[in-house]
Design a protein that fits this description.
Helices cover 22% and strands 32% of the residues. It has 511 residues and is of the alpha+beta class. 39% of the residues are buried.
């Protein structure tokens, strides 16, 4: 039986080999394939081979070389956040509300379940990017990427995964540092450049994990550089400069590097702006991100000097409003819109509508100059503000305090006495977009309504946006609180926007 089996196997091998030989020996067999050599297809005309110019080849090599050099130091950051049982922050209508420990910016740059909106109660998962900055396992990223993270997983270009932990984060500049719990021995740190030397028109690459795709590289130029302010707001309130690029940046790119063609990281991608003219990405200059990271590594947090005002650029104010500020106004200065109750500026006598012209004798051209100067000062330092009030010059000394924490700010804006019974949050551009409101809408968002309160009796709900209090426009939670506290027990008339409808709501007087 064994012999016969081998014989049959041998015959099968012989037949197969003979069949294959018909194709191999002497070329193709016309008997088997059904055509003669004369019938073989002719190559016909083909497109000509082009010779790329040397400059194009050099640029292509620069792009690919830079991407290859950065690859080992660019990481994907996956975050798991345990959603709380209840929520107080506003979310997009028709979806579960935003958890307390998830930042507003998550909605744009920190993916939730493929961009399908906020998940149902339970762990939330998000993806961002980061860049290794030293061989000990320290990674630079955005603050909003890791805010509220209970679990951080870092994935490298070769697929290796490591557990990470947040060393520190600073919402004011949207910068954070993550550390690998067990860093491997062969880490490659990115080369950090000098963002001050970056030129408009210079080629740059954005690297990260957008839309769930790892190690994606997009190319563009530096479209613009400048100071932040009313015209250009970044994801951090104290980002003083910005880098604009037309390199494509998508959700998930947040925290990834923006690099020049020398392979140097010149910015941390943080924001995309989409409009009728197209989409533009923005990055935090690496010089500022690096300074913040060094403090976070050392102290775990940033401590900022605090003036206690909300300001805007004077040259952004309409002429009708300027006329109410008095005469002899300079072309450029900073206008005080809101003074924080109990803050350093209020204690020193600064009032809303004051026009700040100088700080310690240094000319002020706009709000960003004030933020930049105060940010450079030590807590407890005294500064001299020169201002115009009703067209008349004045001067005052202000002792700077420490910038309050989120919890402290919430106390200022929450009307804790319960007399009205609601908590408010300033309507940021990100929250406005999440609520489907027109760009530029200003006001205060209702984030919590106390059961049995006058606010609940009036029909107010979380996500309502207060536009006016007693017919006076409000542009922040502080302004709304001030207006409501001017007569806390009396009747209040509110203009409220809910979805696409605007209506008036009356809060009854306290009994």
């Amino acid at each position: 039986m064994q012999t016969n089996s081998k014989s049959r196997t041998a015959r099968r091998v012989f037949l197969v080999a003979g069949f294959a030989a018909a194709f191999v020996v002497g070329g193709y067999s016309s008997d088997l394939i059904g055509i003669t050599q004369a019938q073989s297809p002719s190559p016909g005309p083909v497109t000509p081979k082009m010779q790329a110019p040397p400059e194009a080849r050099a640029l292509s090599r620069a792009f690919s070389g830079t991407a290859k050099a950065l690859g080992p130091s660019v990481v994907r950051i996956d975050v798991e956040t345990q959603a709380p049982k209840s929520s107080k922050r506003p979310g997009r209508r028709g979806q579960p509300p935003m958890p307390d420990d998830v930042p507003e910016f998550f909605r744009h740059f920190f993916e939730f379940n493929g961009g399908e909106g906020m998940p149902s109660p339970g762990p939330s998962h998000g993806t961002g990017s980061g860049v290794v900055i030293d061989m000990k396992g320290l990674i630079l990223t955005n603050s909003h990427v890791v805010k509220g993270a209970d679990k951080v997983t870092v994935t490298f270009s070769d697929g290796r995964e490591f557990d990470g932990e947040v060393v520190g984060r600073d919402e004011e500049t949207d910068v954070a540092v993550v550390r690998l719990k067990k860093a491997p021995a062969n880490l490659v740190a990115a080369r950090l450049g000098d963002s001050d030397k970056l030129e408009v028109g210079e080629f740059v690459l954005a690297v990260g994990s957008p839309l769930g795709m790892d190690q994606t590289v997009t190319a563009g130029i530096v479209s613009s550089k400048g100071k932040t302010g009313k015209r250009m707001q970044m994801s951090g309130n104290r980002v003083r400069q910005y880098i604009q690029t037309d390199a494509m940046i998508n959700p998930g790119n947040s925290g990834g590097p923006l690099s020049n063609l020398d392979g140097e990281v010149v910015g941390i991608n943080t924001l995309i702006n989409t409009g009728p003219g197209g989409a533009y990405g923005f990055a935090i200059p690496i010089n500022q991100a690096k300074r913040v990271a060094q403090t976070l590594i050392k102290d775990g947090k940033m401590r900022y000097a605090y003036l206690g005002v909300k300001i805007t650029d004077l040259d952004r104010i309409e002429d009708a409003q300027k006329a109410q500020l008095g005469k002899n106004l300079p072309a450029k200065a900073a206008l005080v819109e809101v003074v924080t109750p109990g803050g350093p500026a209020e204690k020193a006598g600064i009032r809303p509508k004051d026009v700040v012209t100088k700080i310690d004798g240094q000319q002020i051209e706009g709000a960003s100059d004030v933020v930049s100067y105060i940010s450079d000062q030590q807590i407890g330092h005294q500064v001299t503000l020169s201002y115009l009030r009703d067209g008349k010059p004045g001067q005052v000394k202000v002792t700077l305090a420490e910038l309050p924490s989120e919890q402290d700010e919430a106390k200022v804006s929450s009307l804790e006495d319960g007399k009205i019974g609601m908590a408010l949050q300033t309507l940021s551009p990100e929250i406005a977009q999440g609520l489907g409101l027109p760009p530029g809408t200003q006001g205060a968002v209702v984030t919590e309504v106390a059961p049995g309160s006058r606010a609940e009796a009036a029909g107010l709900q979380p996500e309502d946006v207060i536009l006016r209090v007693n017919r006076k426009p409000v542009n922040s939670s502080e302004a709304a609180v001030d207006a409501l506290k001017s007569n806390p027990k009396g009747q209040q008339l509110l203009q409220v926007r809910r979805g696409n409808a605007t209506r008036f709501v009356t809060i009854a007087a306290a009994k």
